[in-house]
């Protein structure tokens, strides 16, 4: 069976994966881009945008694992768009005509709408479903490849709570946000279900890799 994977998921030292005050043009609220500056400096990020340059090294190598072997993605409504996007029937996501996923993407929302086929192989499907139900749909679409869980923190937390995550890469960034949406709330003793490795890099971040133990 295919794995469920989380990649390049950045959190602050106090566990917040997004700040407070999300709005159009401010997807991470008062956190701004601070959670992801480590990634913006990598060659992986430059290549994602079709450019050159960027640093190689450990941050690049780990970030570049993001796309390998992925056949579908699941994301929450908050990742697909800012608060209120459901009220705009023409809204097609925050990534333009050719989103970077190039796979089927399943957006979890209490207000489903018809699927949207984009350029480059991305099709957005909108589901009002439990994590297990959404995963079943995504695995069918992935055709034997892995399913990436794209976030946000509430969605990742829900899948962790139900024991549905096989591999998780969390990047702890040395900032304090103080408010927003935390990843770890309600996940007491999560470490018992995973083997965990930690690697710090010269950029100041710590890469935490969680690999599920045999169930």
TrEMBL record:
It comes from the Bacteria. Signal peptide: none annotated. Transmembrane segments: none annotated. Residues 8-191 form the Bacterial bifunctional deaminase-reductase C-terminal domain. The lineage of its organism: Bacteria, Bacillati, Actinomycetota, Actinomycetes, Streptosporangiales. This is Dihydrofolate reductase family protein. It comes from Actinomadura napierensis.
């Amino acid at each position: 069976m295919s794995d469920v994977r989380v990649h390049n998921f950045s959190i602050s030292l106090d566990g917040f994966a997004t700040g407070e005050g999300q709005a159009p043009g401010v997807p991470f609220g008062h956190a701004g881009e601070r959670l992801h500056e480590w990634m913006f400096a990598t060659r992986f990020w430059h290549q994602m945008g079709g450019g050159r340059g960027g640093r190689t090294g450990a941050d690049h190598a780990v970030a570049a694992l993001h796309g390998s072997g992925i056949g579908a993605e699941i994301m929450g409504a908050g990742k697909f768009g800012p608060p209120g996007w459901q009220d705009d029937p023409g809204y097609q996501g925050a990534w333009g005509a050719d989103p970077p996923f190039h796979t089927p993407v399943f957006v979890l929302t209490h207000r489903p709408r018809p699927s949207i086929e984009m350029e480059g192989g991305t099709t957005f499907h909108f589901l009002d479903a439990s994590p297990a139900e959404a995963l079943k749909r995504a695995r069918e679409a992935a055709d034997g490849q892995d399913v990436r869980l794209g976030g946000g923190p509430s969605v990742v937390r829900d899948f962790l709570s139900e024991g549905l995550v096989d591999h998780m890469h969390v990047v702890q960034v040395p900032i304090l946000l103080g408010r927003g949406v935390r990843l770890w709330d309600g996940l007491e003793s999560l470490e018992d279900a995973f083997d965990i490795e930690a690697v710090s890099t010269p950029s100041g971040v710590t890469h935490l890799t969680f690999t599920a133990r045999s169930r």
